[in-house]
Every structure is written in structure tokens, then in C-alpha cells.
Amino acid sequence: xxxxxxxxxxxxxxxxxxxxxxxxxxxxxxxxxxxxxxxxxxxxxxxxxxxxxxxxxxxxxxxxxxxxxxxxxxxxxxxxxxxxxxx
Amino acid sequence: xxxxxxxxxxxxxxxxxxxxxxxxxxxxxxxxxxxxxxxxxxxxxxxxxxxxxxxxxxxxxxxxxxxxxxxxxxxxxxxxxxxxxxxxxxxxxxxxxxxxxxxxxxxxxxxxxxxxxxxxxxxxxxxxxxxxxxxxxxxxxxxxxxxxxxxxxxxxxxxxxxxxxxxxxxxxxxxxxxxxxxxxxxxxxxxxxxxxxxxxxxxxxxxxxxxxxxxxxxxxxxxxxxxxxxxxxxxxxxxxxxxxxxxxxxxxxxxxxxxxxxxxxxxxxxxxxxxxxxxxxxxxxxxxxxxxxxxxxxxxxxxxxxxxxxxxxxxxxxxxxxxxxxxxxxxxxxxxxxxxxxxxxxxxxxxxxxxxxxxxxxxxxxxxxxxxxxxxxxxxxxxxxxxxxxxxxxxxxxxxxxxxxxxxxxxxxxxxxxxxxxxxxxxxxxxxxxxxxxxxxxxxxxxxxxxxxxxxxx
Lengths: 87, 458
Known about the structure:
The structure holds two protein chains of two kinds. Chain A has helices spanning 3-19, 41-55, 73-85. By secondary structure, chain A is an all-alpha fold. Chain A is globular and about 35 Å long. Chain B starts with a helix and ends in a 22-residue tail after the last strand. Chain B has a five-stranded mixed β-sheet. In chain B, strands 14-18-17-16-15 form a five-stranded antiparallel β-sheet, with helices on one face. Chain B has a four-stranded mixed β-sheet with strand order 2-1-9-8. The radius of gyration of chain B is 23 Å and the shape is globular. By secondary structure, chain B is of the alpha/beta class. Chain B is built from twelve helices and 23 strands. In chain B, helix 2 packs across helix 3.
């Protein structure tokens, strides 16, 4: 898990919360996306587009990997870290 | 201008009329200007009717000698396109106009010869077919569709349908017409055909930049401005105020996209003396109807009864507008969605432009309307972005107004826009990606594109 990826994921989720009028929540890696942060599927889709812009990849689009389970902020960080490490 | 020139025109077969009109006007008034190119720029030039007529005669004798299977107009100068059209029509040679983005369709026309701005007929392609003699059957005119929401395709027209919408009454004679459309597309062809058949002056601006367009309107004393709502919106929001105030157009003819109420209001405020006509036409059907009352959409009473010309309108269950051109022709789906609002049917968008977010449908035009209503937003474009999670996601671009409203910041305008969308739209219709851009791209046909500007799949 690289600090740069973790920061990008936290920034993206914070931007989604701000854009949807849910300001002022801090985002921590251990948080549950749905239960703690209230993210729905649209919020997640937006987060993925923002991360594609900042990190240059979309691990949810490649057909090679089945859609991994994403429950926590740190799950997202792991998925992007692995995608960026892959050759 | 001699009335008889135009009276005798309507007796001539449709395919002869362009050449006959050019020759007729050149005979009466050789120095009359037919085309102003590069208007509003430093490379302005003019072509007189006499010069056009001479070029038509020259090309006609080449066509008569060679009898090609057909001609693909590859010219980039509007003057050359007019000459090619007029000469091919009168010589009964099929002609095709291919826009830049539809040039790969030329494979279907491989027997045909290509004519560029030199207007020199090349030898026929190796093994290519030629015709021995003058073909008595009137030739077709092939035009590519604009491809706003799908790949462009070739459509074959008769000269009769190409000229059907031209207004020939005396009130239309000798006027200056602005050509902001691509001259090789249906909408552009309609403008230059109209100008030539009525002894008018075709004014081609040096670019579509709003200030250049405004300067062309003023300097060339343009009377009629045919435009898409996207181009008109850009002109009224972005051109220099002082230049716009000097524009003295008589009429604005809108087509290609639906015009909404705010745009019509804005156009009236900017050009109070101009009458606004909305033309509903497609490359496949030609002109279907016009609305001249300056309100969006068309009167609800038009549905289900015969309009002038025999056209009948109806709607499918999902709101798609259906057109029946005459009593014995089939109903044709237009791909345009309409919705009853009070005593009108208003256009809500193209069926193919609908963005599907997690199974819910979003009409991009509706979202754009909300965004444009936000103080500080000059222009907006909404499109669908593919998403692995929800199928598509609503994405938008906005251009900030210049000057910005007092005390506003770009971030402030963006956040106000999102708040306005949340208040006016359903949850899935609120843009998830909202970018501030310097300008919004338009398609070659002058419309707002409905696909991402940059393909998301690298």
C-alpha cells in the first residue's frame, strides 16, 4: 500500500462527499464505505472516475479480474495499489 | 432584379435550376457578388455571379466529354462546391458531398471521380465505369448525415427534395445569408441552394469564433442567420457586446437541434428586430415543418392532423416523434423525443442521447437547461461517461460567463451548479463529473456532442 495511492483515494472520496453536499466528514482507511461514509453505487462510480483521472487506471474495468469485494476505504486503496504494481 | 429570371426557374427541372439561376443572374448583373469567403477575417475574398457562371460552363463541358459515373466533391472552398453542384445537376451526373468526418464512406462510390478546388476533371479510376451519353434519368445527390449520435451514413436524395424547402418568393430575393454550417452537409447545402436560387449573397465567415461570426454579420450586412441552437447560444453569450449591438439581421433560422425557451428569450433580447423560425428537418427526411411563433417545440394541436404539405405527426408510446410525409408513405421514427408541456410539444432530446444510469434514464438536455440557469454559467454540455458500476454516469462541462458575477469564484459557481442540479433533478440525473472548461466543443455540424470528448478507454 503506497502513501500516494492512499492519499489519492482519500482525496477522491472527500471530493465525492463535497460534490454531493456532505461536507466536513473525515475519511479514514478503516471506514466502511456504505455504513460509515454513506456511499452508494453512484458515489462509488464517481470515485472510480476521479481515481482514473488522478491515478490513470481503472481496475474495475479490466475484464481479467473479477470485481473484487470493496467494503472499506482500505479495500479500495489495496485494489488500486495492486493495479498500479501489476506489469 | 428581373422577376422573369426566377419565374422561368421554377419551370426548369430541379437538377437544372442551380446552373440556370447562376447563368440568369450573371447575364443580368455580372458583377453581383455570389460568395464572400473568409468574412470577418484578413483573407476576405469575393466571387461574382459571372465568375461562377463561367466556371460552371467550363466544368459542364468537361463532364459532357468524360461522362463519369459520378462525382465526389472534394473541394474545400464553398465556391467550388457550388460550381460542382450546378454543373453536375445540369449534366445529369450523380454528385456526392462528403464532410471531413465521413470521408471513409467514399468506398461505396469507388467508380466515381473526385473533384477538388482546381475543378479539373481527373481521368476515371482504372477499370472505372463511365456513361456513354447524357443520362436521361435525373441524377441523385448523395449527402452524409451529421452523425451527432451515431456514425455518419450516406443518404441519396433527388434534386427535387434538395430544393423543396427553398423559398423563392420575391421577399427572399437578393439577401445576404450567413453560412456557419459545413457546406457539405444537408443544413449547409440548404443555405447555399437558397442563396443561389434567389440571387443572394452567401457569406462564409473565416471561422466559427463568436467574434468573427458577429463581425461577419455586421460587415457584410447579413440579413438571414441560419444556425444551430448551440452556435446561436455561443454567439449570444460569447461575442463582444458592442459588436452584437450593431448586428442588423432580419431573421434567424434555427435547426439541427431543439431550441429551449431560455435560448429563444436570449436571442430575442440580443436581436430584437429579428424574426426567429425553427426548422425541423433531418438529412433523411428533408424539411418536415417550421415553427415561426418563437416558442419552443410545436403546438400540441399539430399532432394527428395533416399539416401544410401533407405531413402528419404522431408519437410512439415512449415519446418518440413519428413523421408520415404523405398519406401513402410509412411512418418514420425520428429518434427525437417530445413531451407535452401545456399547449405545446417540446423536444426533450434524442433517444440515442439518453444516458442510462443504473437503469434510470437521464435526458442530457434537461440537465443542461438546469446548468445554464445557474448565475455564472454561460454554456453547458452534458454527456454519458461509461462506468463499470452503473453503466453510465452523468458528466458535464460548463463554461463560466465572462465577466463573472460580482464576488463569485469558479469553485463557488461549480458548487452552486451542483446544488441547483440536486434541487431540480432526480438523484441519478445530477452530474457526477462537472468540469469547468474554456469552451465547449461543437461537432462539425455545429451541434453539441453527446459523447465524451476524450475516449475514456485508452
